[in-house]
């Protein structure tokens, strides 16, 4: 009996499957006939599963981009596939991706896997569109760019880095990613809600880890607990009379907004949701920079010299380092830029088409996912000479949008902002961009000026499973070992 019922379910399942494929193909055909442009080449793979298994197994391999590269060779720079549980147009064409990122919410809205959207609030900056998104994005972006915040972050981060390094012992390995995770979380929470390291910060960190690692299980409770902590902070801020002072964190910035749109619940929810893009990305940037530098002694040497020079100068003048000192280090900035290019911390971004769209002759049907895959662009030999080689010097004569006319420039192309989008672009350009670069600069400075190949601690890195080609969620354990 039980067997009969399972058999019946299988039949129902298979029938639905076949009908849905026929429906999808018919819909695609009819859309093509309505417009002059073509649905990009490619395949939707297996029913329901699409090409997800192949995509994920490549993502965990040494060459995550092999999934895209194979299809790019077969079908061209823009192709159709079926990943993330939905039919998808993948773009490895910088121009097409740029067009989509620049589009407004009438054409494209953010697309995140269901497991993630269920955790975000309805008013999360990651999900909302239109004027409210532009308002919150604008307020946060200009706050993160402000010299006032940069000054404060520099002071705080210097002390967090110092405290962390003081605890490092010769007889135990240092896990760079763990260390940078702690530091970056402290910086992030300070910038968002002005919470200092301590007991409450530890509770928040623990809850956030549960929240983020439990994306597939039961993170709702963890979010509720975090919400309570943040909500309490917001309420006490409302009750205190600090409105005439300069905003010290993102909560202050949003509370100061005169419109009634930004309720306490919306602000609290957004503080938590903003930890999602901010929490992991910066530590990965720092860890990868250390990894690439340890593989490239010439770059490490030049970076160390540049940072030691600044340190000596400041010591001579009896001055403390300020944020603009860090950002003035041109080779250090090139190292960070090159790490962003090669590391592809965010491999790409996703959108959902709100109507049939035609871009460069390609049809992106309404309701389909669009995946702007940055990784293929950042590793394209047509844009970057020897793309898999860590070469910070390629940025030395460049301001990103223009390589200039220096005869030493070897790059095939001018590196344009089209071809370099680690922080995305358009209306959703990462508002944490300046903060991320500043944090990485401060960390690198303290790391290379305190540890060197000639000291007791040698520059030997044991990288357990570290893959320069980053996949979806792989673990990076970079161990600085004392040999
Ligand atoms: C190396 C570090 C980082 C990288 C590579 C990075 C990358 C990105 C990218 C590619 C996007 C665009 C997403 C899209 O278009 O759908 C984005 C958005 C965003 N990032 Fe970052 N990010 C970094 C650090 C940070 C930090 C430190 C924060 C601080 C809170 C932050 C906050 C955000 C927010 C709130 C958004 C959403 C903006 C919106 O949709 O309006 N990010 N980030």
TrEMBL record:
List the cofactors: heme
- Give the EC number(s) under which this enzyme is classified: 1.14.14.147
Extract one GO cellular component term from the record.
endoplasmic reticulum membrane
Membrane-spanning residues where?
6-24
Q: How does it sit in the membrane?
A: Single-pass membrane protein
Record localization: Endoplasmic reticulum membrane
Q: Which SUPFAM superfamilies match?
A: Cytochrome P450
Note the superkingdom of the native organism.
Answer: Eukaryota
* Pfam families noted in UniProt: p450
tRNA processing: present as a keyword of the record? no
Q: Which UniProt keywords apply?
A: Brassinosteroid biosynthesis, Heme, Iron, Lipid biosynthesis, Lipid metabolism, Membrane, Metal-binding, Monooxygenase, Oxidoreductase, Steroid biosynthesis, Transmembrane, Transmembrane helix
Family, as annotated: Belongs to the cytochrome P450 family.
Instruction: Specify the protein name.
Output: 22alpha-hydroxysteroid 23-monooxygenase
What is the organism field in this record?
Answer: Hibiscus syriacus
């Amino acid at each position: 009996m039980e067997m009969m019922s399972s058999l019946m379910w299988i039949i129902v399942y298979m029938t639905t499957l076949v009908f849905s494929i026929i429906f999808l193909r018919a819909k695609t055909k009819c859309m093509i006939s309505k417009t002059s442009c073509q649905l990009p080449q490619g395949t939707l793979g297996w029913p329901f599963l699409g090409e997800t298994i192949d995509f994920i197994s490549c993502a965990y391999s040494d060459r995550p981009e092999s999934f895209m590269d194979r299809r790019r060779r077969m079908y061209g720079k823009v192709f159709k596939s079926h990943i993330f549980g939905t039919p998808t147009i993948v773009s490895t064409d910088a121009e097409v991706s740029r067009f989509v990122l620049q589009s407004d919410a009438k054409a494209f809205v953010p697309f995140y896997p269901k497991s993630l959207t269920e955790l975000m609030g309805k008013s999360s900056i990651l999900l909302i569109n239109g004027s409210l998104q532009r308002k919150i994005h604008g307020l946060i972006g200009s706050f993160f760019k402000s010299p006032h915040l940069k000054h404060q972050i520099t002071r705080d981060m210097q002390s967090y880095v110092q405290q962390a390094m003081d605890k490092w012992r010769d007889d135990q390995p240092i896990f760079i990613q763990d260390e940078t995770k702690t530091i970056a979380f402290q910086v992030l929470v300070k910038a968002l809600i002005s919470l200092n390291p301590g007991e409450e910060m530890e509770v928040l960190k623990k809850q956030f880890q549960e929240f983020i690692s439990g994306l597939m299980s039961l993170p709702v409770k963890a979010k509720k607990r975090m919400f309570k902590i943040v909500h309490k902070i917001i309420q006490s801020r409302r009750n205190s009379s600090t409105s005439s002072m300069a905003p010290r964190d993102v909560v202050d910035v949003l509370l100061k907004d005169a419109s009634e749109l930004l309720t306490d619940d919306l602000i609290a929810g957004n503080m938590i949701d903003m930890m999602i893009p901010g929490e992991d990305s910066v530590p990965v940037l720092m860890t990868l920079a250390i990894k690439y530098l340890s593989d490239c002694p010439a770059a490490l040497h030049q970076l160390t010299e540049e940072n030691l020079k600044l340190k000596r100068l400041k010591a001579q003048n009896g001055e403390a380092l300020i944020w603009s000192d860090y950002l003035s280090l041109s080779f250090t900035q090139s190292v960070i830029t090159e790490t962003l290019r090669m590391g592809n911390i965010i491999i790409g971004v996703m959108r959902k088409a709100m109507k049939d769209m035609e871009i460069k002759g390609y049809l992106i049907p309404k309701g389909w996912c669009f995946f702007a895959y940055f990784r293929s662009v950042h590793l394209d030999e047509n844009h970057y000479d020897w793309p898999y080689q860590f070469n910070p010097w390629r940025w030395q004569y460049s301001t990103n949008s223009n390589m200039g006319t220096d005869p030493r420039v070897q790059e095939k192309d001018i590196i344009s902002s089209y071809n370099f989008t680690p922080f995305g672009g358009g209306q959703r350009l990462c508002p944490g961009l300046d903060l991320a670069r500043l944090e990485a600069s401060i960390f690198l400075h303290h790391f290379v000026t305190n540890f060197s190949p000639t000291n007791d601690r040698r520059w030997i890195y044991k990288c357990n499973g570290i893959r320069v080609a980053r996949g979806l969620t792989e673990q990076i354990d970079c161990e600085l070992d004392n040999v």
